[in-house]
Specification:
This protein has seven helices and ten strands. A hairpin with a 5-residue loop joins strand 9 and strand 10. The chain is globular, with a radius of gyration of 17 Å. Bound molecules: adenosine-5'-diphosphate and magnesium ion.
Amino acid sequence: MSNIISAQNLTLSYERDEEIIKNVSFFVKKGDFVFITGPSGSGKSTLLKSFYGNIKPQSGNLLIGGLDMNRIKKNKLQELRSHLGIVFQDYKLINEWTVERNVVLPLWIAGYSNEIQKTQAKRLLHHVKLTGKEQKYPLELSGGEQQRVGVARALAKNPFLILADEPTGNLDEYSSNVIWDLLENACQQLDTTVVVVTHKIPSVFNIPYRHFTINEHGAIYEVH
Ligand SMILES: Nc1ncnc2c1ncn2[C@@H]1O[C@H](COP(=O)(O)OP(=O)(O)O)[C@@H](O)[C@H]1O
Ligand SMILES: [Mg+2]
C-alpha cells in the first residue's frame, strides 16, 4: 500500500446543492511532500478536513492509509486520527496547560505512563528547540514558539501523515522558515507523508515537493 491518500471522483459539500470540491481524483504516495494552494474559499481546508474524517465524501471514494472514509466507523476513525499529526493556523494549544502537557497530549490520550510522557516531552521539545520552556504556558511564548509546540505535538506519536492547514499563516518569515524546516525534516528523516495547505509556498525549500492547486470551481490541478 504505497498510496497514503487516494481520492477518486471525490466530491465534498456541506449542503447538497453546493459542491465545494468537485469530482477530483489524485494520489499521494508515502513520503510525498504536497503543497495545496488556491484562492480563499476554494475548499483547501474542506479538503484537508476530509483527510482527517471531519467531513465525509458526498460522492466518490477517499482512502486514507487504506481506510475507506465513506465507511469508517467511529472507533476506527479515532484510531486513524491517533496516527495523524494535525497542525492548525491558530495552533489550537490548551492555554491552561503547560507546554510540556500540550506536547504529550496525544500520548496522555493513548494512556502512556507519566514517565514515558516526560521522556518524550523532553525529546520532542529538544527537537523543536524549546528545551527549557517545559513549564511555560502557551501565552507566554511567541507565535512562532507556539507553533513549534503545535508541530512537536503533531509528531508525538510518529504519525504516518501530517496535515497542516496554513501552519505559517500567522507567523513572520523567520518563524515560518523554522516551521518549514521542521516539516521538511519530518518528511525527509522520518519518511512521513506531509500535506500542507498554504497561500504561499516558501521561497527556500530544500526537498522535492508536489504542488496541487484548487481553482474557484473546486477542481484540482497538479502544478508540478
Ligand atoms: N462548516 C461549514 N458549513 C458550511 N459551509 C462551509 C463550512 N466551512 C466552510 N464552508 C464553505 O466552504 C467553502 C470552502 O471553505 P474552506 O474550505 O474553508 O476554504 P479555504 O480553506 O480554501 O479558504 C467556502 O465557501 C466556505 O464558506
Ligand atoms: Mg482554509
